[in-house]
UniProtKB/TrEMBL annotation:
Alphabetical list of SUPFAM superfamilies matching this protein: LemA-like (SSF140478)
Pfam families in the record: LemA
Main location: membrane
Keywords linked to the UniProt accession: Membrane, Transmembrane, Transmembrane helix
Name of the protein this chain belongs to: Protein LemA
GO cellular component terms, semicolon-separated: membrane
Length: 187
């Protein structure tokens, strides 16, 4: 009788452990999928921005044709974003593209006719809106990655994560150039 009771308790314990393992594993899969979805949202916005750039470059060419090097830099940065495959590569290429776009918009300030062009203003507004969406999706991605990384590194899910092959994900970080304080001069 006592042997059957002990056997039943051991069986319940084993079943409980298996159920806990399955629940933790499924939660880890969901967390990993949320990270992948968050990255896909960044990818969507990067693609949207890349699709807008050729139109912007063509519009600027008509007004500022002698800014050839800057236009080539924007085109090269766009190409780098499209060729990047890993989140880290895409982050670096995206940051480079953001920087070249800022330069392009700064140059546009020197061309009043260009600034007044309705097509340019519309493209600039769409790019600004897209940049805002990229910033938001980066933040959402980083929040999702942080939650995922916390989950795979804390007890007891870290054991299931290790057994299931779940690995730490990288955050989308700003470059050193983006972190630096811009110089403001009123001279």
């Amino acid at each position: 009788m006592i042997g059957m009771l002990i056997g039943f308790i051991i069986l319940l314990l084993i079943v409980g452990i298996v159920i806990a393992f399955v629940v933790m594993y499924n939660n880890l899969v969901k967390a990993r999928n949320f990270v992948e979805n968050a990255w896909a949202q960044i990818d969507v916005q990067l693609k949207r921005r890349s699709d807008l750039i050729p139109n912007l470059v063509e519009t600027v060419k008509g007004y500022a044709g002698h800014e050839k090097q800057l236009l080539e830099n924007v085109t090269a940065a766009r190409s780098a974003v499209m060729k990047a495959t890993t989140p880290h590569e895409k982050a670096e290429a995206s940051n480079m593209l953001s920087s070249t776009l800022k330069s392009l918009f700064a140059v546009a300030e020197n061309y009043p006719a260009l600034k007044a062009n309705e097509n340019f203003r519309d493209l600039q507004n769409q790019l600004t809106e897209t940049e805002n969406k990229i910033a938001y999706t980066r933040q959402f991605y980083n929040d999702t990655v942080t939650k995922y990384n916390n989950t795979i590194q804390t007890i007891p899910t870290n054991i299931v994560a290790k057994l299931g092959g779940f690995t730490k994900k990288e955050l989308f970080e700003a470059t050193d150039a983006e972190k630096s304080v811009p110089k403001v001069s009123f001279s």
